[in-house]
């Protein structure tokens, strides 16, 4: 059963299960919906870096924080396609293009659509993350063939105002809804380790799991340390078992969604990543670079997947909704 009526009380109770029970429940649902040995891969490219007018307290790219990240212009389509070819050659299935914008300017739309068409023609799935979109912009990207749009809500509705003041959770949810209505698949998740309480992490997932339909993919990021941003002062290391409980809860609340173990893998042991896959994570970013921070080297990921007997394949939910 795919449910969109989860309550906080239900989510808290699942989250608090004894570890073995929680992992068993998550793994059973994972197996009912996906091949548990398959992992999806996406590669990221920052097509427009830094100088962003938003003040997200975790982000190296905000013009409000002094982080040493240099602002660049929107890349040319050829440069983007060259990076997409390299990503494909190194095993990526999806190419995700990110821009440090509050929202795209209409004058950029032609080039963005060219990028989507070009990346699709290479046989890669396409994803973009460009900030807020108008319904017209959604329609243009859809017509160009955009498969996914990433737009994270990042934390709980209660904690959101502590993280960003130039936009609200409602703004984020509005764009997510526009994207869904426009027929583009939604990628929406959050960040752990920004000083939020356990309750906020659960509320983040309940917010996603009670949307009109679950995001197609749910990135779980660990906050990546950035010198010079406000979150640095209140960030806390995420206990590995706390991470596992959140991955498992995401899998249980949204059983047919792809859960991506996103930022923060460089600091994780192989054993912790393997446990995250058991808890229901079935997607990773591959390639040495995320947007402005690092990611494990490709050979390290290949070695890890080989040791676990896992293979790279599109994480497609099984059509049948099986009982636990
Ligand atoms: N500007 C667009 C937006 O905000 O949607 C797209 C780019 S933005 C950098 C994409 C996502 O990266 C954010 O929503 C956040 O979840 C994640 N992110 C940014 N900085 C991060 C950090 N230091 N650690 C972990 N995740 C981070
Ligand atoms: C997501 O949830 N994580 C990715 C992607 N969506 C765009 C971004 C992670 C960024 C980590 C910090 C950086 O590299 O600047
Ligand atoms: Fe800009 Fe996105 Fe970074 Fe916020 S998260 S400052 S919107 S690039």
TrEMBL record:
Keywords: 2Fe-2S, 4Fe-4S, Biotin biosynthesis, Iron, Iron-sulfur, Metal-binding, S-adenosyl-L-methionine, Transferase. Its cofactor is [2Fe-2S] cluster; [4Fe-4S] cluster. The gene is bioB. NCBIfam families: bioB. Binds 1 [2Fe-2S] cluster. The cluster is coordinated with 3 cysteines and 1 arginine. It comes from Pararhodobacter aggregans. The lineage of its organism: Bacteria, Pseudomonadati, Pseudomonadota, Alphaproteobacteria, Rhodobacterales. Signal peptide: none annotated. This is Biotin synthase. One of its GO terms (molecular function) is iron ion binding. It holds the Pfam family Radical_SAM. It is an enzyme of class 2 (transferase). The keyword Transcription regulation does not apply.
């Amino acid at each position: 059963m795919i449910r969109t009526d989860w309550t906080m009380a239900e989510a808290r109770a699942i989250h608090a299960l004894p570890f073995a029970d929680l992992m068993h429940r998550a793994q059973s649902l994972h197996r009912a919906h996906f091949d548990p040995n398959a992992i999806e891969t996406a590669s990221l490219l920052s097509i427009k870096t830094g100088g962003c007018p938003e003040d997200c307290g975790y982000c190296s790219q905000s013009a409000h924080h002094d982080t040493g990240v240099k602002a660049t212009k929107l890349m040319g389509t050829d440069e983007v396609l060259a990076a997409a070819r390299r990503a494909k050659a190194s095993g990526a299935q999806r190419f995700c293009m990110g821009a440090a914008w509050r929202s795209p300017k209409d004058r950029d739309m032609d080039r963005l659509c060219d990028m989507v068409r070009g990346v699709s023609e290479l046989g890669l799935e396409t994803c973009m993350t460009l900030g807020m979109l108008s319904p017209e912009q959604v329609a243009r990207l859809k017509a160009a063939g955009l498969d996914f749009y990433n737009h994270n809500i990042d934390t709980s509705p209660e904690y959101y105002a502590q993280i960003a003041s130039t936009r609200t959770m409602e703004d984020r949810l509005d764009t997510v809804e526009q994207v869904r209505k426009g027929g583009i698949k939604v990628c929406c998740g959050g960040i752990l380790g920004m000083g939020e309480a356990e309750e906020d992490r659960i509320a983040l997932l309940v917010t996603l799991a009670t949307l009109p339909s679950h995001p197609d993919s749910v990135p779980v990021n660990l906050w990546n340390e950035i010198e010079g941003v406000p979150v640095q002062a209140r960030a806390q290391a995420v206990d590995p078992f706390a991470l596992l409980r959140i991955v498992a809860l995401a899998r249980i609340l949204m059983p047919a969604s792809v859960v991506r173990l996103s930022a923060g893998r460089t600091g994780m042991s192989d054993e912790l990543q393997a446990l995250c896959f058991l808890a229901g994570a079935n997607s990773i970013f591959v390639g040495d670079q995320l947007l402005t921070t690092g990611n494990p080297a490709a050979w390290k990921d290949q070695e890890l997947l080989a040791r676990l007997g896992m293979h790279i394949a599109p994480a497609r939910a099984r059509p049948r909704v099986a009982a636990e």
